[in-house]
Amino acid sequence: MDKRLLVLASGMFAIGTDSFVVAGVLPQVSASLGVSVALAGQMVTLYALSYALLSPVIAAAAAHWPRKRLLLTGLVIFVLANAVTALAPGIGLVLASRLLAGLGAAMFSPTAMAAGASLVPPEQRGRALAIVIAGLSSATALGAPIGTFIGGWLDWRATMWFVAAVGALAAIGVAWRLPAIPTPPPVSLARRLAPLGDSRVLLTLLTSWLAFSGLFLVYTYIGLTFDRATGGDPRMLAGLLLLWGVAATVGNLVAGRLTDRFGSRRIINVAIALVAIDFALLPWSSASLATTVPTLIVWGLCGWGLLVPQQHRLINITPAAAPLVLGLNSTAVYIGVSMSGLIGGAAITGIDRHALGLVGAPFIALALLVAEWAHRRIARPAPHSAEAVAAALKAR
Predict the structure, then answer these.
(1) Which residues contact 318 (CB under 8 A, 6 or more apart)?
(2) What is the pLDDT of residue 395?
(3) Which domain does 259 fall in, by range?
């Protein structure tokens, strides 16, 4: 396996641990700071919103930076932000530090994914993306469960110190092992947003936005949704997160190979359809441990199995603008995550927390309709769209 891709995956593991571990310690944060779980859940919202909005801005502003320097700077900011979270005396500074952590993630993640895709031949892009994103999904298998366990054993501040340590180790790995990566030509913010003028790209991004809005609506408040299965025990929740994360890692890696073999359409449609049904059944399947286990396996396999074919589809639409569209896809995913924190927080104050799956399922089902619309639009590509963007990038 390419060591360069593994180094990039290590950084994604750190970013992913921070993204997913917060959901496991929200009850502890709520109790420690004397705020509601819904308000504590905005830690997820602000992190994701910062990431989503700053990704294209940072990509344009730092376009002339060497890729390795940009990756390392992002990780340093990320580590410092998590240290501030661990030390913060109140919810105000905690939320502000989550914005700073999102900045670090915005500098690292899109750059890492674009670099991974550029390091291999076109026919291996699906697998390369799967390896890099496996760092993100494996954070659900190892980072989030370990962090959640630490939160239950010690406290949530120890969890945030754990995240900072993981980020520091990733930075050391990138500094030591990653070779210099060619810097792409500088591209203005306007040109980075230009692919949105292509309906094929826009519909594919909308698919990611809708699907991950529904998926993370439940994940952000997973401790509440599955409290009947865990009995409120954070150690049991950590075990369930471990199961979900293993399934996510397997789904991610398998999706890469299946996408290279069968193309993106089949994998996208099957993954979305299965997870939509899975979420619609959550009010009943989350009632016991026996039914929760298969529910989390399907969720992990299909939810994370969606990300690789979505990125593969975007790269095939406009190969020359791959870094741009991958960055936009990350923005779409994290806008969905930020929306999920807000919508989920509102939902748990007005409905049974065990019914969150019924709130998320319609978002996922709508993503399936949009994905098929995107496929039909891709089948008859329009002139003067993504091709024009690619030509403009080459001209620069």
Answers:
(1) 195, 198, 201, 324, 325, 386, 387, 389, 390
(2) 35
(3) 3-395
What is the dihedral sign for C-alpha 38, 99, 104, 367? positive
The CA distance from 126 to 135, in Å, is 15
Q: Which tokens in the block code for residue 57?
A: 């801005």
Query: How big is the chain, counted in residues?
Result: 396
User: Rounded to the nearest 5°, which phi and psi values hold at 178?
Assistant: -80, 125
**385 by DSSP, 3-state: which?**
coil
Task: Give the separation between CA 393 and CA 382, rounded to whole angstroms.
Answer: 18
Please report, for the domain that includes residue 187, its CATH number.
1.20.1250.20
Task: Supply the angle between the helices 307-317 and 356-379 in degrees, to the nearest 10.
Answer: 30
Provide the 3-class DSSP secondary structure of residue 382: coil
Amino acid residing at 2: D
119 burial (CB, 10 Å; 0-12 / 13-18 / 19+) is middle
Checking 351-354 for CB contacts under 8 A at 24+ apart, the result is 352/283, 353/221, 353/224, 353/225, 353/227, 354/225, 354/228, 354/282, 354/283, 354/286, 354/287
Separation between Cα atoms, residue 296 and residue 261, nearest integer Å: 26
Number of domains in the chain: 1
**How far is Cα 219 from Cα 246, in angstroms, rounded to an integer?**
15
Measured CA to CA, the distance from residue 10 to residue 216 in angstroms comes to 23
pTM metric for this prediction: 0.74
Q: What is the pLDDT of residue 280?
A: 95
pLDDT at 88 over 80: yes
Q: Give the Å distances, CA to CA, from 375 to 204, 231, 257, 275, 379.
A: 9, 44, 20, 20, 6
> Could you identify the residue written with the tokens 């990431």?
51
- Estimate to the nearest angstrom the gap between the alpha carbon of 354 and the chain centroid: 23
CB 70 within 8 A of CB 103: no
**CA pair distance 20, 1, nearest whole angstrom:** 26
Please say whether the beta carbons of 313 and 260 come within 8 A.
Answer: no
Structure tokens at 200: 């094929």
